[in-house]
Design brief:
This protein is of the alpha/beta class. It has one domain: Rossmann fold. It has 6 helices and 13 strands. A 7-stranded mixed β-sheet has the order 2-1-3-4-13-12-11. Strand 1, helix 1 and strand 2 form a beta-alpha-beta unit. It starts with a strand and ends with a helix.
Length: about 200
């Protein structure tokens, strides 16, 4: 069972449907007792960083996720990926979950937000098994991650290269939306389910 963490922000049902399309059982919940019964967790998200952390904290899910990450595979999607980092400057300075050293800052060039299909390259980690270099995924975001090479699973170019997938220990994150990225996105989710 894959638990999709409900903290009041995100396109939860589309992630659930994508997981079901690859043969995984998935539930949506913000209840710790329900999430305790899940083998893996997905932290989706759409919206602002500060609001995301506020909602996680209000439900006690920030502390819960930090505990679960010790022995549970976790995948952050879009805002969910950004929340895995230490901080963001979105609408003021906000602390994140701190699973991965680094932060998010707003793009300074180009059309903001970046919306549409973009290439993902320099692929590392089992998330990208069977996915070709330069495969295009669907992005919608105004802030980009900055972290060390040791935590960078993939990069994308938008007025400069930035980490579009990150990882540390049991925790993985992707800036793009695999649930909206066709067959490549389903392959990535299938890889996560099989980890």
């Amino acid at each position: 069972m894959i638990g999709i963490v409900d903290y009041g922000l995100g396109n939860l049902r589309s992630v659930q449907k994508a997981l079901e399309a690859v043969g995984a059982a998935a539930c949506i919940s913000g209840e710790k007792a329900v999430l305790d019964g899940c083998d893996k967790l997905i932290l989706p998200g759409v919206g602002a960083f500060g609001a995301g952390m506020e909602q996680l904290s209000a439900r006690g899910l920030d502390t819960y996720l930090r505990g679960r990450a010790k022995d549970t595979k976790m995948l952050g999607i879009c805002l969910g990926m950004q929340l895995l980092l230490e901080a963001s400057s979105e609408e003021g300075e906000h602390a994140g979950l701190g699973f991965i050293r680094g932060r998010c800052d707003r793009f300074t060039q180009g059309k903001i937000p970046q919306i549409g299909w973009n290439e993902v390259r320099a692929l590392q980690t089992p998330l990208f098994d069977g996915i070709e270099e330069g495969t295009r995924f669907y992005f919608v975001h105004s802030y980009r991650a900055a972290c060390g090479a040791e935590n960078t699973a993939a990069v994308t170019d938008y007025y400069g290269a930035y980490p579009s997938a990150i990882f540390a220990g049991n925790v993985y994150g992707v800036q793009f939306h695999p649930e909206k990225s066709g067959s490549a996105g389903l392959k990535l989710l299938r890889n996560f389910v099989g980890m």
